[in-house]
Write a structure and sequence with these properties.
This protein is an alpha+beta fold. It is built from 15 helices and eleven strands. It binds S-adenosylmethionine (SAM). S-adenosylmethionine is lined by residues 43-45, 58-60, 67, 99-101.
């Protein structure tokens, strides 16, 4: 997001347009008439307004946004005109900063101190919620934070997630589920040409089961291996964006972790949340890798090659050995237009190198790899072009979506952001592509439009 200046076109029929803005306000009016809103300002770590209430809350996401600093920009003007109307709210000269629950190194002196502040403040805030919330309902918490690749001894995990979940568990909550919810506009600034999150993850939390017993790390991993594949298949059926998958898997994974009083390693020490997150990511990756058995031999070869070389060149010898292992042949894939093999070097063809006029019906070696990359090629011309292809592919097409998930996770891990973007976009557009593909098959509507009339 660019924080420095706004640059909007008031007549663009997009965000910032007068008409769009007025429409937005109009849409809100019926809602305002149906419910009475009530706003109050209080510090989350000492508030008592949540007592016996049903709580759904959207806390700050670690170090994502410095709300208070940004608010100062508006605050000085609002204070000038509204101080007499809301004297309590505008009592201070600038927006209060010290209680703000974000991990901001510049405010606390170092990254470590900022993390400690966030952990203790968030634990206190969650404690207030755990103590006061209505016992009949779970507390739901939004957390739209992307897991970045922080390497730890056990694998990858994210400090922003680890610290937040730690606070949640210290406050006496267990996670009983997660719902990915599409809360973000696809055209927002941060989502432009980046792999930004498409969803918020809603954590469903209940007080930790007092009768829970301890378990071992080995049993925890075994339970993850049993339960994550079903949870993952469910998320994929719901067409979750690949970029959100790792965050969404935290829920089912943490549900397993918080089911126990403690998870103990071989030395009898508690496995910390951060390591549990790394294990969840590891099992997620293994589960995605297991889905590979659904793919044909050429696609499995291409996947393994892609993981190692991407679309860059590699040695022919390596390609040849891999082809034996995957039960396929380099020359057949060369003939099929999946790769080029010249002068002792092999490389996969990029989607932009694939010819436009591909007809799956006349391809004797139709593979999932082919379908996926031809669809990405078609997406350059828009969803309608991809839909035309899906209409020709029929029910086969869905495996291309499955492969796109796998390819996205490889690109994320290997930090190939540009390629990740294409695989993520294909899955995100899938419902629309399928809808358009269905329409392709229908006869033209005999009803004319207003523009057909002279
Ligand atoms: C993710 S944002 C919520 C955004 C909101 N859902 C919306 O759509 O506008 C987190 C909010 O928590 C507020 N916040 C930060 N520290 C707080 C504290 N100690 N007590 C109460 N609120 C706090 C921030 O000012 C920010 O408005």
């Amino acid at each position: 997001m660019t924080w420095d200046f706004p640059d909007v076109n008031p007549f663009a029929n997009a965000a910032g347009d007068y008409g769009v803005s007025v429409d937005g306000v109009i849409k809100g009016i019926p809602g305002m008439m149906m419910a009475t809103g009530y706003a109050t300002q209080a510090d989350a770590s000492i508030q008592d307004i949540s007592r016996d209430r049903l709580i759904s809350t959207d806390p700050p996401y670690y170090d994502n946004i410095g709300y208070a600093d940004l608010s100062d920009f508006f605050y000085v003007w609002l204070r000038h005109s509204l101080k007499s109307v809301f004297p309590d709210l505008f009592a201070t000269l600038a927006v209060p900063k010290t209680e703000e629950l974000i991990a901001s190194p510049y405010r606390h002196g170092s990254k470590e101190k900022a993390e400690t502040f966030f952990l203790s403040g968030m634990t206190q805030a969650m404690n207030r919620l755990a103590e006061q919330a209505h016992p009949a309902f779970p507390v739901t918490i939004y957390y739209a934070f992307k897991q970045s690749e922080n390497e730890t001894e056990t694998g990858t995990a994210s400090t922003g997630w680890g610290t937040f979940l730690d606070a949640l568990i210290r406050a006496g909550f267990g996670v009983s589920g997660t719902w990915p919810m599409r809360t973000e506009l696809s055209n927002r600034m941060i989502g432009k040409d980046t792999n930004a999150l498409a969803s918020s993850i809603i954590l469903v939390c209940r007080p930790h089961n007092a009768g829970a017993t301890a378990t071992t790390r080995r049993e925890f991993v075994a339970a993850l291996k049993t339960e994550l594949p079903t949870a993952l298949a469910h998320l994929q059926r719901g067409n979750i964006a690949p970029v959100d998958l790792a965050q969404a898997a935290i829920g089912p994974g943490m549900a397993v972790y918080t089911r126990y009083a403690r998870v103990l390693d071989a030395e009898g020490k508690t496995v910390p949340v951060r390591d549990a997150l790394a294990l969840i990511n590891q099992v997620l990756d293994e589960t995605l890798a297991e889905q590979e058995s659904d793919f044909d031999a050429d696609s499995r070869w291409a996947l393994a090659w892609f993981e190692q070389f991407g679309f860059s060149e590699g040695e022919y010898g390596v390609a040849e050995i891999l082809s034996k292992a995957k039960d396929t042949s380099v020359s057949a894939m060369d003939d099929d237009g999946v790769l080029v093999s010249r002068g002792g070097k092999v490389r996969l063809l990029r989607p932009d190198e694939l010819p436009d006029n591909w007809d799956p019906a006349s391809d004797p070696r139709l593979t999932v790899w082919d379908m996926t990359h031809r669809l990405i090629r078609a997406m350059e011309q828009g969803e309608s072009a991809a839909a035309e292809l899906v209409a020709k592919l029929g029910s086969e097409a869905d495996t291309a979506r499955e492969l796109a998930y796998r390819l996205y996770s490889i690109c994320e891990r290997k930090k190939r952001a540009q390629e990740a973007l294409a695989y993520n976009a294909l899955v995100q557009s899938w419902p629309e592509i399928v809808r358009l593909a269905r329409e392709e098959g229908k006869p033209e509507s005999p009803q004319g439009t207003i523009f057909d009339q002279e």
